[in-house]
Amino acid sequence: MTFNVTHTSGAARRGEITTPHGAAQTPAFMNVATQAAIKGGLSAADLETVGCQIALCNTYHLHLRPGEEIVRSAGGLHGFMNWSRPILTDSGGFQVFSLARLRKITEDGAAFNSHIDGHRVFMSPEDSVSIQYALGADIAMAFDECVGLPAPYDYVKSSCDRTFRWLERCKLELERLDGGAGKTVLFGINQGATYHDLRRENMLKIAELDLPGYAIGGLAVGESHEEMYETLDELLPVMPSDKPRYLMGVGTPDNIIEAVSRGVDMFDCVLPARNGRHGKFYTSSGTINIKNEKYAADFTPIDERCECPVCSNYSKAYIRHLFKAEEILALRFAVTHNLWYFNHLMSDIRSAIERGEFEAFKKSRSE
Amino acid sequence: MTFNVTHTSGAARRGEITTPHGAAQTPAFMNVATQAAIKGGLSAADLETVGCQIALCNTYHLHLRPGEEIVRSAGGLHGFMNWSRPILTDSGGFQVFSLARLRKITEDGAAFNSHIDGHRVFMSPEDSVSIQYALGADIAMAFDECVGLPAPYDYVKSSCDRTFRWLERCKLELERLDGGAGKTVLFGINQGATYHDLRRENMLKIAELDLPGYAIGGLAVGESHEEMYETLDELLPVMPSDKPRYLMGVGTPDNIIEAVSRGVDMFDCVLPARNGRHGKFYTSSGTINIKNEKYAADFTPIDERCECPVCSNYSKAYIRHLFKAEEILALRFAVTHNLWYFNHLMSDIRSAIERGEFEAFKKSRSE
What we know:
The structure is a homodimer. Chain A is an alpha/beta fold. Chain A folds into two domains: 2-269, TIM Barrel (Alpha-Beta Barrel); 279-361, no CATH class. The model of chain A has no long low-confidence stretch (mean pLDDT 96). The first copy, chain A, contains 14 helices and 16 strands. In chain A, the strands form four sheets. An eight-stranded parallel barrel of chain A has the order 4-5-6-10-11-12-13-14, surrounded by four helices. In chain A, strands 1-2-3 form a three-stranded antiparallel beta sheet. The relative contact order of chain A is 0.13. The interface between A and B is large, with 40 and 40 residues.
């Protein structure tokens, strides 16, 4: 994997990541395909249509079902889901924290009960990397503990130390598996809750491992936007400038623009798909809820300025009808439009950085 | 509307229907879009991809939601759902019988409670035609009473007589609305349960009205296949040979082939979509249930001989995973494949008739 910054505009960066499955332009928004499928009924071909550059799949889910050996036999996730562009896999750490039951964290790793059938599972840092390697990820993420907020300082500190030891084990395991071939690379994840000194200390430590990229984890888990931005203000200056910076699980268009303005390069979030499934559509003039009665006889598209396959062909009235009639085509249209919106927002962001006008772009959006 | 038979092979007919929205080749299988949407999340564009020639929408559902005035304002169903090919609308008679509660049939029409919110609705033959006209159907169906089986002879006889009077009223109402413009045409529906004398008598009577097409209703509602075929054997000889013959709600590939061999031209059925949603896929070597454990690591397509977008790009293992993981993409793939299968079966049937080899085709299928 390589990463090059080609333009800057203030602290905002315009770059390119290259992987064994092609390049991605940054800042990039990764589209979430948790179980090797996109919620709302989109296929991998649809993901290309909406402009997705990198698909994000989840180690926790795929390990439980269908199991990484089936995916490996299918030629990895790329073959399994028929997606030819880059794939990043989450390590499972976040799902152990958010989904699994009766979890027990030890130095070895995490034991937990499957959220599907309750069976006991143990996952070590080595297991996580080995699963991600079997899945054929271009970018694997370090296995980390994502601490819920608020959390006591001492617990966060000892958790960060353990997650750092896990990161060293992840790195060793990937070196053992990949042997320097570069089929899969590992990103480190910064933790530290909202304690700025722990965040900075942890970031400086993981930066010494000289990994190909660094993520900020444990944000967008309930803290305020201001707390998130303050943490970014503390962290970005100590993140390696020659490596991609990935803000995990973020976020709204505003969150993304604020983070880009601070120098973040990569994002992922379930928001466009989850909100879409509830009838919330992102448009160039704000969000709308299509279930609103006022759209019942509105024969204009969701967004006159949008060129997505939904806005090009269907009216608000039709899409509202699909939601009211509980047709799953409604979900597909919503996710298609919203992913298109987020991916094209990133394209607008990249153009603004190329022109050296990112601050003006950011200002124009907040008016 | 015009209809021409271009080839015959035994009693099987190869023909063409032309409508204001283009031609359809017969024998044809209409694809069901009940609420102006195809179950499983397919869009109108997808319907074209799977080879659908005529979409079938339901008056009962669309009258209740979103209401025909909204559809009319959208430019009819064609504009509303963005479908440019022919549309046939069911009259609502079957849904009053199968879905509505507390129905009361009188000479005037049918009163019933909406299955959605229970509100009382009254629909006369004139209402049904007027709604179908507002929906912009190319082909409207007569408003009929579909009698549940088994039913007493006397009830069926008096019901047939009333449905005939309703048919005359439907015809008058469409003439009033359409004024001979031919935007919408009306098909009559034969009823008579499994009483052959009533069926024949009714068919002879409705044939005298010289309508552009005739349907056989009230079959595939629980009777055996043999009873259905016997009824067809009785009816087909007395159906006008210069008009399309439509067997409503049928059926399996075998049902369709048996009916074509007796001279039926048009079909519709929810089977490919409904079965698909339960994981049942039609293939050139029979049906399979993709949820079966034996497909967990089967990386071949559903049907090696199928060229549909699903079989061209995805494996059984992936599709099984989607079903097990409850991803709605599973439903879309299943409906896409099964509708493709049915539409291409019809294409094979038409080719066999053109070659004058329909009996050989039928025999080869049953081996």
